[in-house]
Amino acid sequence: MDLPPFARRSTREWQAADAAHFLHPFTDHQALATKGVRVITHGDGVYVWDSDGRRIFDAMSGLWCVNVGYGQGALIEAAAQQMRTLPYYNAFFQTTTPPATALAERLAAVTPAQFRHVFFSSSGSEANDTVIRLVRRYWDLMGQPERKVIVSRLNAYHGSTMAAASLGGMAAMHTQGGLPIPGIAHIDQPHFWAHRHGAAKGLSREEFGVVAARWLEEKIAEIGPDKVAAFIGEPVQGAGGVVVPPSTYWPEIQRICDRHGILLVSDEVVCGFGRTGRWWGCETFGTRPDLMTFAKGVTSGYVPLGGVMVGERVARVLIERGGEFEHGYTYSGHPVACAVALANLDVIEQQQLVQRVREDTGPYLAQQLANLLDHPMVGEVQSCGLMAAIQLCRDIPLRESFAPEIAIGMACRGHCFDNGLVMRAVGDRMIVAPPLIMTRAQVDEMCGLIRQALDRTYAQARTAGWVAQAAG
Ligand SMILES: *Cc1c(COP(=O)(O)O)cnc(C)c1O
């Protein structure tokens, strides 16, 4: 492979330079410097390679984004061609570029009927920041400026800027930097396993779904219905642990939002573009959001792009009564990013990826993962399209959680890495979100690697005495 001059270094040299200069996101820098960073050098399809030449199955699609896999020629060509033609021009001051307007039109065509307009950003965080401004602007224009509070959920992930991290419900993020900002409230998540000894005790998943949705109604009553502007949620919570809600949850949330006139915002940054087996998570779960944020899968991560789909309810008010909307980014509608997104949509459509996930690979993955339920350390598996969670627990039939200080998820993740698989740990929940181009054979390969990692983790747990010793 032809590497540019800067890339010709040994792993050790990379690790030294990295520890000296690169502050990584969501990373304990001291711990990483001691351990040494892993250097990923190239990718193809569902695989990436590290600087020692080892092939790794990327079951996380990078960070939930490389949906069409690595090395898609159409995206690469689209970027190169657009860079030659016009690498940048802005969308401020009454101008546009062909890729930006063409993508806006295309997004309107692939989203539910209420969406005809888009506001572009370069990331999911910026898209969710934009949501806060849009929602509050909408209620100002509607003559209800006291409607400011946005309700979100614990363990939600909506990004990492001040506003997006506030919308999110990650406790660890809130402990740093004085978050959340005012005007954000949180309710608990519809997490059947986590609530199995509490709110979900004795209930079916469906019964629990209604109970969890009613937490929104209780929160609205507490805040005052005339002060609540919007509810935001990921159809399936991604970074929170691939929490697939009971089928009853979202319809009940929709009913509550309708009843109180509250805007519904669907954060589709992970679920959008086919991940759940429909174009949008809201279609899988049966809601009609007023606003919808996207990023990640829109370009399959090849270049940064995000945005907000603005439904007609909000768009009409903003356009007809709003005057100038005092908000925007230098890279809103970046022509290279939009050209790549258009090529990405072509690949999704030509390869019928959404349909494949819904009818073929999604159900097949669910079936293969269900085989893991015989493993002594697997408490539940949950999947939706091509995103899945494997809940670790102490031996079946105990099904008790491990003590947090054991960090069993991190132990399992270590065994994955050592065995050529990227799987993420969220507490004791192992999660995957593989590229949507994956084949059945690759589902088998991934599930085989997962089982090996579970076996190795179990062996380690037995040796360490974290689980019951075998009875002879
Ligand atoms: C990743 C993510 C974001 C933030 O996107 P960035 O591009 O990292 O800013 C927002 N919402 C969800 C659901 C995400 O998974």
TrEMBL record:
Q: Which cofactor does it need?
A: pyridoxal 5'-phosphate
Repeat is among the record's keywords: no
Show the PROSITE patterns listed in the entry: AA_TRANSFER_CLASS_3
Swiss-Prot/TrEMBL keywords? Aminotransferase, Pyridoxal phosphate, Transferase
Q: Which Pfam families match?
A: Aminotran_3
Q: Which SUPFAM superfamilies match?
A: PLP-dependent transferases (SSF53383)
Return the similarity comment: Belongs to the class-III pyridoxal-phosphate-dependent aminotransferase family.
What protein am I looking at?
Aspartate aminotransferase family protein
